[in-house]
């Protein structure tokens, strides 16, 4: 099966066989193409090539309705539930039991919910409103939806991404029950422990291709390395770091999201002048929020952020930018650039009101133009004209524009989230070089990345985040396997011990440098 | 592009916050901004043709001739063309140049009348356009015009000041009136997330009743007349004429030109305008770049309201010279179409204001000379805007090629 | 595992627990009640106006003749005000106890306040307050608003913002008048009106669904277009031969036996023409079908979360178009009330902004048929009150009363009157 978006091949000739009554895990990093594939299976997207066979018979799905009729149910990563509906209404939608004149037979709908709910001990009130339910319960509604339509194959897309550990445990036991009753489950995830806990067979996808099958007996480290890929070894030359004072300090930082979930949990670390601290971890473990809190887009509940001896918590984003923080946001197209704006306007997006670009209220177009042209040279940006909209550039060149903006002034701290996401190899290398150059100029650099290759390519030290906490801060020469374990929540010392090389010296240099929250790993079960 | 129009991912309880709305708006901006001038011209052509059809089918002679279309097709077509042609030529003569006039003065007067009608449309249209560019729907031009006219008019007869100074003070009063009225919507949007569309629509009606109330109060109108209208403005507060009487072209037109230049400077050359546009195009990126979205929202509405208030002031100080319940006419709503036709750009809005001013001026002559009601102008205007908002439709009518998509899909 | 986890969760749990324990006292309403009660006490009671106010209940031809109620303006004002003060004090007490008031409380309070106000307004001039006329006027003025609000809510609940209600009302009024006049039968006009409203909706959905044009813009422009077309045709065709094209046709009143003989309310509610009865049916039907039927469930799904609807095989855009056309037909019917419903000929721009008030009623009614009905009735009543007061000559300016619906709506969207939440995907085109 193949699915192409524009020039981007999301799924490249993927073959997958699901046996009846098995739990089949699809393992892969974010953006590997897992969800795309399942959306094709569910009839939401049309495939650009390949066949779907059900019991050896080829089937085609014009829409989700056909897939449901064929016995395929799907629980989407973002729930397909109407927040203001009740549980019974949500389950009934599209397949409403009706009485006369099109009125819904709510009694029937409730009965169905209760029936399935009691079969699996879901404890769901059919009259509860979806938006009042915790996410775990919402997910169970989704499962009931699928089961009420006699799904024989259930696709669960990142089902644990939004669950608490307890809810995850419950889900796993539900999956076991479903399996016992003969339902096949496709379980899409990037979480290693869960895969090992539940899957009968595992398929690993990377960059739209199947890179291998694995057995549930594989160790997590094996799975991790398969998932993130063997070292492509991007050779970015860099000198040994020459760290200075720790001018940037984060202490006890705690961030709580709108739903009162703790997303950054008592995080403390330092970044010294002239070093790059990479924050590694699987997507969604609080790294994004950490970066946004440092720049001021999110306010922390507790803790301090100190730059050059001054606590910057409470300052506006503008003040923080003004005091010399350069910030490359994770989601470039949403937060980093304004697509309609010209390239040169994007180059001054957060410095437009400062000299030399402005004098009083007046922008100085000549200066803006000249500076833009200089940066185009300096950062090797391939473009037609600096007055074209930035949307006409490739992702790599867009990112260079962002970098040229953020690195184009004197910085006291440089933060970049996923600086090379979606870029080609050439651009990645360029970005890394620039970041290292900034480091060599003495700027403390904080790089958030989920790509281990990237982390190894540029980091002087590595902080691993898991579930909102820093599991440990280790040296850049820590083994991939150890990092993989830490990304799964294993504390640094345990991870290092488990994978320790016989050479004593190696282990010593890689020893954990802070021990904040080292025990949190036990949460992941 | 698709990311902006696809529904937001479900969150359990989305508050009616500013963020929730923002996703929708850049899409509109693109719709307004991305079309080409060709589409505008073609839209005007189609609208005039449709207007012609309406004129024809409502004309008794044409309908009569149509009954004999097979017997005498020539007569039908000549009636058809003469009816529609007469109407549109009267429109043109009333708007630009009257070649039937006896004196040169009268021949060129229509052009100046178009400028007079266009003045408040340009000023108010600029206010709407500025808000559109900043991602805000200012549907409240009408209310802002009324408030501007009310305060400017009141100051125009209530104060006793030397000429020019009096006029300027009155005009500033109009600016403040409009700014306050729009500012209410801006503050509510920034502080509570109240949808500015609904608030400005409601404020339009409130302004209308407020003026109606004031016009019944003796202390306000300075007259004892039973009619709901005010005293005539002092000469000192009236905008002076740019050409000798009987021309009515007044200083307000100069103000409109200056305002166009000001808005151009604001949007294209100032740091404030940079913030406005950034928030309008991508509030998330603007926030990341340290721009305060709520501050910008309030400021945009204040400036937009000030422009619309100035439009109201120009109307009362330059043309009407007294306050009546109908002082604002339909300027506020026409201005929305002006801003859309002008693609929310200062020069475009200026030209669109002139065009619709010309329609208005010409419409009167058309009505008096050919009996074609001026309402046809509303039809033509609204069809133009509908077509401009949907460039693909215009392109498919004329089988134009779709412009190559330069954007990369994210 | 659990030990770590509990500590992690504690701050969050604590804050949410605290916020639950310390739900802030809802002062907004008690304060409002107190201010209103004091206004009533001071102005209508203590300062007051000498003289008597007559509440005329009976109309000629009633089965039971009910005598007029004559009260002294100040005494009535004082007594009513004292009741209001007691109620306000109760609301303060209950607020301190964090007890939510029953739904009847604001209604009773409002009615008492209005009566107190009327007793004051009618005094001095020795005015007669014709209660039946006042209420009948309120209903009549509400009819187009109610139809319009129903149109708006069906559209928005399907995900299409409809600012063009104004245009749909006007188009309905126009076509109803013309068809009724040509056919010489008001019922023919009643059949034509929905078609006019639906035609406007066709243009709306064509641009909104096919070309993704911003729906607010289409709505505003459509209103101008309909004014232009109807005014143009009025000035040309209709005025040329008004006897043929624009003759008055009135839907006859059809009093419902027995019910219409109930004093006051019977007269007001059940001695009406068929259009009003249709309105009752539409509101009741929508109240049931929006929330209880397959149609309503699917409509709400496409308006709230179209992708969710799509994943269960519901055709999102088809549903939206169909419902918006239906909504347009409802608004068209409302427009018919201006002409055949009231026995008037068509006049230029005769909808006079009612479509915008209908929009306001829909918002204030929180997108519920029942709520929108009440809001529309409230708006109709305040307008009728304005008319009545103007005719008996009272110190309160008509315009200030007429402003009220709009001010209330602004306060509502700004969150002062409870939480107002539109359907989540209203106005957002659905693109796969």
UniProtKB/TrEMBL annotation, chain B:
Quote the Pfam families the UniProt record gives: BPD_transp_2
Q: How does it sit in the membrane?
A: Multi-pass membrane protein
Subcellular localization is given as: Cell membrane
Name the UniProt key words of this record, in alphabetical order.
Cell membrane, Membrane, Transmembrane, Transmembrane helix
Stretches that traverse the bilayer:
37-57, 69-91, 111-132, 139-159, 165-185, 197-215, 247-267, 296-317, 323-341, 348-366, 378-398
Q: Which domain of life is it from?
A: Bacteria
Q: Name one GO molecular function term.
A: transmembrane transporter activity
Q: Does the keyword Transmembrane apply?
A: yes
What spans are recorded as compositionally biased (Pro residues)? Answer: 7-17
Residues annotated as signal peptide: none
Q: Does the keyword Cell cycle apply?
A: no
Where is the stretch described as Disordered?
Answer: 1-24
The entry's cellular-component GO terms read: plasma membrane
Q: Which InterPro entries match?
A: ABC_transp_permease
Spell out the protein name for this chain. Nucleoside ABC transporter membrane protein
UniProtKB/TrEMBL annotation, chain C:
One of this protein's Pfam families, by short name?
BPD_transp_2
Instruction: List the GO molecular function terms.
Output: transmembrane transporter activity
Q: Which InterPro entries match?
A: ABC_transp_permease
The subcellular location is: Cell membrane
Is Ribosomal protein tagged as a keyword? no
Q: Which UniProt keywords apply?
A: Cell membrane, Membrane, Transmembrane, Transmembrane helix
- Put simply, this protein is called Nucleoside ABC transporter membrane protein
What's the source species for this entry?
Brevibacterium sandarakinum
């Amino acid at each position: 099966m193949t699915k192409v978006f524009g020039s981007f091949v999301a799924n490249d000739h993927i073959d997958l066989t699901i046996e009846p009554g098995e739990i089949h895990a699809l393992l892969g990093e974010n953006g590997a193409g897992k969800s795309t594939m399942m959306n094709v299976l569910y009839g939401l997207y049309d495939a650009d090539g390949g066949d779907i066979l059900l019991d050896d018979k080829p089937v085609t799905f014009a829409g989700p309705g056909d897939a449901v009729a064929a016995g395929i149910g799907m629980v989407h990563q973002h729930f397909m539930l109407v927040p203001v509906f009740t549980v019974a209404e949500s389950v009934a939608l599209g397949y409403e039991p009706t009485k006369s004149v099109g009125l819904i037979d709510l009694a029937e709908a409730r009965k169905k919910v209760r029936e399935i709910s009691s079969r699996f001990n879901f404890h769901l009130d059919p009259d509860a409103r979806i938006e009042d339910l915790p996410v775990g319960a919402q997910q169970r509604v989704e499962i009931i939806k699928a089961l009420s339509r006699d799904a024989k194959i259930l696709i669960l897309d990142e089902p644990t991404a939004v669950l608490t550990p307890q809810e995850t445990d419950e889900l796993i036991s539900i999956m076991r029950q479903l399996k016992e009753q003969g339902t096949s489950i496709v379980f899409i995830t990037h979480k290693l422990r869960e895969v090992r806990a539940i899957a009968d067979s595992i398929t690993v996808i990377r960059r739209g291709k199947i890179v291998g099958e694995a057995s549930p007996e594989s160790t997590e480290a094996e799975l991790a390395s398969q998932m993130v890929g063997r070292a492509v070894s991007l050779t970015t030359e860099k000198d040994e770091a020459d760290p200075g004072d720790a001018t940037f300090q984060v202490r006890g930082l705690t961030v709580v999201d709108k739903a009162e979930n703790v997303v950054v949990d008592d995080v403390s670390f330092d970044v010294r002048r002239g070093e790059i601290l990479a924050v590694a971890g699987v997507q969604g473990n609080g790294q994004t929020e950490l970066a946004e809190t440092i720049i001021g887009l999110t306010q922390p509940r507790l803790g301090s952020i100190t730059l050059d001896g001054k606590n910057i918590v409470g300052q506006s984003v503008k003040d923080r930018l003004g005091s010399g923080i350069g910030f490359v946001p994770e989601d470039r197209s949403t937060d980093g650039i304004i697509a309609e704006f010209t390239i040169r306007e994007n180059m001054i997006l957060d410095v437009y009101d400062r000299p030399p670009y402005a004098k009083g209220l007046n922008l100085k177009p000549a200066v803006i133009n000249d500076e833009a042209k200089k940066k185009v040279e300096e950062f090797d940006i391939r473009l037609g004209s600096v007055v074209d909209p930035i949307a006409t550039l490739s992702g790599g060149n867009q990112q260079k524009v962002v970098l040229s903006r953020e690195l184009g002034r004197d910085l006291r701290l440089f933060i970049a989230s996923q600086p090379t996401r979606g870029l080609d190899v050439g651009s990645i290398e360029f970005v890394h070089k620039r970041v290292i150059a900034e480091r060599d100029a003495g700027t403390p650099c904080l790089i958030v990345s989920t790509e281990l290759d990237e982390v190894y390519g540029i980091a002087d030290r590595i902080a691993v985040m898991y579930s909102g906490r820093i599991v440990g801060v280790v040296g850049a020469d820590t083994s991939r396997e150890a990092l993989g374990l830490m990304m799964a929540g294993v504390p640094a010392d345990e991870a290092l011990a488990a994978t320790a090389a016989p050479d004593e010296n190696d282990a010593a240099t890689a020893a954990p440098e802070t021990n904040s929250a080292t025990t949190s790993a036990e949460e992941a079960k | 592009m698709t990311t902006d129009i696809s529904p937001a991912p479900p969150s359990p309880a989305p508050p009616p916050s500013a963020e929730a709305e923002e996703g929708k708006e850049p899409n509109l901006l693109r719709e307004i901004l991305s079309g080409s001038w060709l589409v505008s011209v073609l839209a005007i052509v189609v609208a005039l043709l449709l207007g012609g059809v309406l004129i024809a089918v409502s004309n008794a002679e044409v309908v009569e001739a149509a009954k004999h279309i097979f017997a005498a097709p020539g007569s039908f077509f000549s009636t058809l063309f003469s009816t529609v042609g007469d109407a549109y030529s009267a429109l043109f003569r009333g708007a630009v140049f009257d070649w039937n006039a006896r004196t040169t003065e009268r021949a060129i007067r229509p052009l100046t009348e178009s400028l007079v009608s266009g003045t408040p449309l340009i000023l108010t249209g600029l206010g709407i356009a500025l808000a559109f560019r900043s991602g805000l729907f200012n549907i409240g031009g009408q209310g802002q015009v009324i408030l501007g006219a009310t305060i400017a008019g009141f100051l125009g007869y209530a104060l006793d000041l030397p000429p020019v100074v009096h006029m300027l003070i009155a005009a500033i009063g109009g600016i403040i009136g409009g700014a306050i009225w729009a500012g209410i919507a801006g503050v509510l949007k920034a502080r509570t997330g109240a949808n500015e569309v609904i608030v400005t629509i409601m404020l339009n009606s409130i302004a209308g009743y407020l003026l109606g109330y004031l016009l019944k109060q003796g202390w306000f109108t300075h007259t004892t007349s039973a009619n709901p209208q005010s005293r005539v403005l002092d000469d000192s507060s009236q905008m002076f004429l740019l050409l000798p009487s009987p021309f009515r072209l007044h200083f307000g037109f100069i103000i409109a030109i200056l305002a166009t230049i000001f808005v151009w400077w604001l949007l294209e050359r100032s740091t404030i305008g940079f913030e406005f546009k950034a928030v309008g195009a991508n509030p998330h990126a603007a926030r990341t770049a340290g721009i305060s979205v709520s501050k910008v929202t309030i400021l945009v509405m204040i400036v937009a309201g000030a422009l619309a208030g100035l439009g109201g002031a120009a109307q009362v100080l330059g043309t009407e010279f007294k306050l009546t319940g109908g002082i604002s006419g339909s300027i506020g709503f026409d201005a929305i179409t002006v801003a859309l036709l002008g693609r929310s750009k200062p020069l475009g809005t200026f030209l669109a204001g002139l065009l619709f001013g010309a329609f208005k001026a010409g419409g009167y002559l058309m009505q008096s000379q050919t009996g074609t009601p001026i309402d046809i102008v509303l039809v033509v205007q609204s069809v133009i805007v509908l077509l401009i908002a949907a460039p693909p439709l215009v392109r498919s009518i004329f089988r134009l090629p779709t412009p190559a998509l330069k954007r990369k899909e994210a | 595992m659990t030990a770590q986890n509990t500590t992690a969760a504690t701050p969050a749990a604590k804050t949410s627990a605290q916020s639950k324990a310390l739900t802030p006292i809802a002062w907004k309403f008690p304060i409002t009640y107190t201010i209103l009660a004091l206004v009533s006490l001071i102005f209508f009671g203590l300062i007051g106006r000498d003289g008597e106010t007559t509440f005329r209940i009976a109309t000629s031809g009633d089965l039971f003749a009910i005598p007029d109620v004559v009260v002294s303006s100040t005494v009535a004002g004082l007594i009513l005000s004292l009741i209001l003060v007691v109620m306000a004090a109760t609301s303060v007490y209950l607020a301190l106890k964090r007890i939510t008031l029953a739904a009847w409380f604001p209604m009773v309070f409002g009615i008492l306040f209005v009566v107190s106000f009327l007793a004051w307004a009618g005094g001095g001039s020795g005015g007669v307050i014709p209660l039946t006329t006042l209420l009948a006027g309120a209903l009549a003025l509400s009819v187009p608003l109610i139809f319009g609000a129903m149109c708006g809510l069906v559209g928005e609940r399907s995900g299409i913002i409809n600012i063009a209600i104004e245009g749909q009302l006007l188009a309905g009024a126009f076509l109803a008048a013309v068809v009724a006049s040509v056919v010489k039968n008001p019922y023919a006009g009643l059949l034509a009106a929905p078609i006019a409203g639906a035609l406007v909706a066709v243009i709306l959905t064509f641009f909104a669904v096919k070309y993704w044009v911003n729906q607010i813009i289409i709505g505003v422009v459509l209103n101008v277009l309909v004014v232009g077309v109807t005014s143009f045709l009025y000035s040309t065709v209709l005025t040329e031969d008004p006897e043929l094209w624009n003759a008055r046709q009135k839907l006859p009143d059809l009093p419902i036996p027995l019910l219409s003989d109930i004093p006051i309310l019977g007269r007001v509610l059940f001695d009406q023409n068929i259009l009003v009865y249709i309105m009752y049916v539409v509101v009741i039907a929508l109240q049931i079908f929006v929330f209880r039927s397959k149609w309503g469930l699917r409509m709400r799904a496409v308006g709230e979360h179209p992708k969710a609807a799509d994943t269960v095989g519901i055709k999102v855009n088809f549903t939206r178009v169909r419902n918006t056309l239906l909504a347009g037909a409802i608004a068209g019917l409302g427009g018919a009330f201006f002409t055949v419903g009231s026995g008037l000929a068509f006049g230029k721009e005769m909808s006079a902004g009612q479509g915008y008030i209908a929009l306001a009623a829909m918002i204030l009614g929180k997108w519920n048929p029942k709520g929108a009905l009440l809001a529309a009735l409230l708006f109709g009543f305040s307008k009728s009150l304005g008319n009545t007061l103007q005719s008996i000559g009272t110190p309160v300016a008509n315009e200030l009363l007429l402003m009220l619906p709009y001010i209330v709506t602004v306060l509502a969207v700004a969150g002062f009157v409870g939480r107002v939440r539109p359907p989540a995907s209203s106005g957002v085109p659905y693109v796969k």
